[in-house]
Amino acid sequence: MRIGQGFDVHAFGAGHQVVLGGVSIPHTHGLVAHSDGDVVIHALCDAILGALALGDIGRHFPPSEERWRGVGSRHFLLHCAALALEQGYELVNADVTVMCERPKVAPHADAMRVNLAADLGCTIGQVSIKATTTERLGFTGRGEGIAASAVVLLQRRAQRVAEAPASPELRELVARLDVDTLS
Hints:
Elements: E1 2-13, E2 17-20, E3 23-26, E4 30-31, H1 39-51, H2 57-60, H3 73-86, E5 89-99, H4 109-120, E6 127-132, H5 138-141, E7 145-156, H6 168-177
Helix pairs in contact: 1-3, 3-4, 3-6
């Protein structure tokens, strides 16, 4: 078993939506970021990479490289999911907390869970998304930005994967990595 934790933060800036867990949410601001600024996925990627002792998201997708500008963060999560499979691990569960005053996360939490489960090749029951405010304290409380923390538990895969992952992108990565599946 391996445990990893991750944290990410982005400031609000120009725009009319934020992306959280791969879901576009209308908002009065966008996020200042090199990619799409999805703090949920960035924190989750760091948690997975930490559990695998493979560094952090910046090491795998440096913000100094133009090719990552504006890239959807689900691409990053698929990469991290493939690394976990390549190392012989599977997700037991992921727990993500979003910290902000706005936008409200609860109405979008299930859609986020569906996206994350698809990209991680697991069930929605293995992914938790919750939110909290900081009671108007700090930068999130002043509405200057948004933060997320994530914890994952990974375990060694004891047997073959029962079925191919639901996500076509993850299936492609699994096939490239030559991981045993029954599809």
